[in-house]
Write a sequence for this structure.
């Protein structure tokens, strides 16, 4: 039987991964094929208009901040190249880069164990769909 599981399997969280992994192995142990199904909001534009914290509003509010941040980062890179000490802004950038590397490595290491690829699975042919893995 082709069994779909719709859960938070793409989230970078050990608990979410373990729940999805356990659900997959329990279903497979009963001889069924497991396919993780991604959730997609059908009416994203309507949601963005209704949500006070919509993505569009956040981008508009963050735009001047991002501009200033990019300026400071560039200034820090120039200062570092000139042999000056690493400043707090440059340290923050290094931290963000470490977080991004962690996320990429997490996805490469754990998502394949669930049989999840980069491409989202939205409407597979299934016999059964399970929503949630806990």
């Amino acid at each position: 039987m082709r069994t779909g599981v719709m859960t938070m399997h793409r989230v970078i969280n050990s608990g979410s991964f373990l729940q999805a992994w356990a659900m997959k192995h329990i279903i497979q142990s009963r001889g069924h094929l497991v396919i993780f199904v991604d959730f997609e909001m059908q009416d994203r534009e309507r949601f963005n208009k209704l949500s006070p914290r919509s993505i569009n509003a956040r981008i508009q509010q963050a735009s001047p901040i991002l501009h200033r941040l990019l300026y400071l980062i560039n200034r820090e890179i120039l200062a570092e190249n000139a042999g000056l000490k690493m400043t707090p802004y440059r340290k923050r950038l290094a931290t963000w880069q470490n977080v991004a590397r962690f996320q990429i490595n997490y996805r490469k290491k754990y998502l394949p164990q669930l049989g999840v690829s980069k491409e989202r699975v939205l409407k597979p042919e299934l016999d059964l769909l399970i929503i949630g893995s806990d």
